[in-house]
Amino acid sequence: MLKEPPRPPVWIHQTEQLLKVCAELHGQPRIAVDTESNSLFAYQEKVCLIQISSPTEDYLIDPLEIKNLSPIGDLFQNERQEKIFHASEYDLICLKRDYNFSFSNIFDTMIAARILGHTHVGLDSLLDKYFGITLNKKYQRANWGMRPLPLEMLDYARLDTHYLFALRDALEVELHAKSLLELA
């Protein structure tokens, strides 16, 4: 059974913080990634929050405050480091559009679940099925461009990446057992 995150997420809104965090994350064999955008609240949407988790920390990066996000781009291009996403297509499109990031070595938990034949492949459904964790998706369509972001929204955002490591590992076991890992 997975537990609630032991520490609050780390809010990153200054370049110095970002450089330090990216240096720490560079040494990780894998990271979990998600984004939040303001698509329902702006004519021209943009990425308003980037969530990156390591096995021990959850980082919430404010791209509205930090102008140079190239250290994150370096992480995304790192072929030796796996990037775990859930439903990566939209995130990748937005990150490419807004920052011209390139990506390598991606594991998408939604695609893995589809390959395994799951009919309910939303993150909330999969976390409930595998771990009995109920996510409150109340802020899924919130205005992520507003500042400051309420603590409830920050907690919501961090949970989109916090549990991806365990979910990825559970799906990998099933994929391997069915000889579908390479396809995923």
Described by strand count, sense and barrel closure, the largest sheet is:
6 strands, mixed
Shape: globular
- Strand order of the main beta sheet, please? 1-4-3-2-5-6
Helix-strand topology string:
EHEEEHEHEHHHH
Strand content: 15-25%
**Termini distance?**
25 Å
Rounded mean pLDDT score? 95
**Quaternary structure of the protein:** single chain
The assigned structural class equals alpha/beta
Q: Treating each run of at least 4 consecutive H or I residues as one helix, how many helices?
A: 7
State the helical fraction: 40-55%
**Could you name the ranges where pLDDT drops below 50 across 5 or more consecutive residues?**
none
* Extended strand count: 6
Structural Rg: 16 Å
Explained architecture:
The chain is of the alpha/beta class and 184 residues long. The protein is 40% helix and 16% strand. It is built from 7 helices and 6 strands; from the N terminus they run E-H-E-E-E-H-E-H-E-H-H-H-H. It has a 6-stranded mixed beta sheet with strand order 1-4-3-2-5-6, with helices on both faces. It is globular, with a radius of gyration of 16 Å. The two termini are 25 Å apart.
How is this structure best summarized?
With 184 residues, this protein is of the alpha/beta class. It has seven helices and six strands.
